Amino acid sequence: MTANGEDYRALNRASWDDRAAAHAASDDYSVDRFRVDPTFLSHVVQFDLPRLGDLSGLDGLHLQCHIGTDTLSLARLGARMTGLDFSGESLSQARELAAETGAKVEFVQSDVYEAVPALGAGRFDFVFTGVGALCWLPDVRRWAAIVAELLRPGGRLFMREGHPVLWALDDARPDGSLVLEYPYFEREEPLVWHDDDTYVQTDATFTHNTVHNWNHGLGEVVTALLDQGLVLTQLVEHDSVPWEPFPGKMERLEGDERRMADRPWRAPLTYTLQARKPE
């Protein structure tokens, strides 16, 4: 529950359930490419191929896997993948895609904070989480404890996430300027959004349009992982993001990435982080 008494999980899950089919039908997720090309990988996974390394034979977990395109991509790189998400409709789309492509991926419905009892402790060689996942969780320290418990000794966390600077920016100004409007640091109170749209191109209409989000500062994320005994092995900030957060202000790059057209060096938009659990 949030401080105002609303169940953020119920609100957020209803929104994701409402949008899962539209996301699967959108060109942005390239679901049809997965069906016809057994070598195709999601743009998110393609971006981090140089950093992912060899996944062959590893037991991997994708937290907040949504419709499973990144999960399937990691399986195509040789990992034995499990995907976890709290949205039943999203997992229905994920299971359908896995069945159609012959992928052996296990999908489990659970809230992230209940992942250990749902899956078992110490099961995974790596935990993966993608862009736009952490903002749905109110407590990054609790998340870090879950990740550490899920990993085997020697296992690693691999994440690419929206940078907290990105989530703090607002472009809704009459002069079109970008300003730091929203919290950079984690706060107890959520940001409450009412939005009948979604981040993919679609003509679908939605009925569950209120969601709760939280930002988590980069130092807060790193410190939460260090406090669990994980060892930071990589932290790279990027000037691009795999969708268009500021329409009309972005330029398209190779690999379906976008960055700010005007002076992209002004702000980081995503980051890739890796941390390892000691043997």
TrEMBL record:
Keyword annotations: Methyltransferase, Transferase
Methyltransferase domain mapped to chain residues: 62-155
Keyword Magnesium: no
Entry superkingdom: Bacteria
Entries under InterPro entries matching the protein: Methyltransf_25, SAM-dependent_MTases_sf
Single biological process term from Gene Ontology: methylation
Classification via Gene3D superfamilies: Vaccinia Virus protein VP39
One function term, GO molecular function aspect: methyltransferase activity
Protein's recorded name: Class I SAM-dependent methyltransferase
Source organism of the structure: Cryptosporangium phraense
Taxonomic placement: Bacteria, Bacillati, Actinomycetota, Actinomycetes, Cryptosporangiales
